[in-house]
């Protein structure tokens, strides 16, 4: 009835090889630090963590982001690849990390133990050194069983897991770093939570997967999005998506469900129990509420949902099928807005952050980490305070093509129906598009020309809740895509070289 989430796609980057000297140092240091790390892990408690995505044209430096995490006492972070710049910034921070392997890399790792060993050396062993990165999990793929993938990655998951497990054994890391496979909630289904089952075509592989996870002490990681349920279903009751009570409670035998999260969570719990693993721990890999892009995505709704979720999970009440047993950990999606993400699922996809792109808290939120409300990033270096707007003395009748061009290279999703800038008028739309492009281009003078229709102003043109941004200068976001392509080329070159030498 109320449990399925609309599936979403992501494209993430790959990590580059590190110098052989660093790899060798990692190997010799690993054994020395494992005892201390394992002791510390035994003391860890379930916490609220965050997803740190980097698909943005306006990126803070990794060092600034790590400082922001530490200032807010966020001790658990999930990243979607193994970006060496991000990992280097996390060294010595004490933050527990889940690193990701993109779906596109699964086939190579599944087909070759040598490729698995190579990836592990470059992206894990090289960083798990004294004073290094506290890597706890490796996410093998990201939602690889999505219905929309039509089984594209399904056959690679188990072989990749088996190869990576052996690679961790060789690196003396298998007792500490756990492999997981983040799944979307569309992997299971039911009309009532207690009747939860995995999709018929996934029953066999899910049984294999969960058996592997259970044997190796790994949790089941799931991404749950009540917002997507609401967005994709006009009959979905809005109050059921939140945690403040509902007039649409779901009665399931002796159990009553007052929010979509508990219903979804217990549908998974029932599906796991049905295949014989009802007690396996569950981690929420992604959950959140966007703040812009459509009418139901706004600051108030996001704050109410996220605070309600945090309070609910940290109350340790659990759910009807798992009373007193909340998720092991919950990773909020997301730390920042990502203005370069695909908008195929919806314009909201670029606005999940609890912080704006520049590390400023969007609203008052208590993460329950003994640190009060969110604290802003410090010492952020902005570009100069200037904006590009439509020249009021020019005829703007020919500006439509320029607006389209600007929005193809920059983020204009707030202009659409329901967005925070949807009511600023035609001239305002042109100015917003011009400025978005101008900031992405690092305020280069020619980027505000638009055949003479643009002009630079030093007066902030923001209107009400519609913010005309000024970019940041302390992260080299302009090279994000070049770096991604470079890392991809390097890995595949190394992979083919390894295959030739085996």
Report on this structure.
There is one protein chain. By secondary structure, this protein is an alpha/beta fold. It contains 13 helices and 17 strands. It has helices spanning 20-42, 62-71, 84-90, 106-111, 113-125, 154-170, 203-215, 226-232, 260-274, 299-314, 400-409, 425-440, 480-501, and strands spanning 48-52, 76-79, 96-101, 134-140, 178-180, 183-184, 188-189, 197-198, 220-223, 250-252, 255-257, 282-287, 318-319, 322-323, 330-332, 387-390, 454-457. Strands 5-4-3-2-1-15-12-9-6 form a nine-stranded parallel β-sheet. It has a two-stranded antiparallel sheet with strand order 7-8. A two-stranded antiparallel sheet has the order 10-11. Helix 5 crosses helix 6 (154-170) and helix 11 packs across helix 12. The longest helix has 23 residues, at 20-42. The chain is globular and about 70 Å long. It starts with 19 loop residues before the first helix and ends with a helix. Residues 2-45 and 477-482 have low confidence and may be disordered.
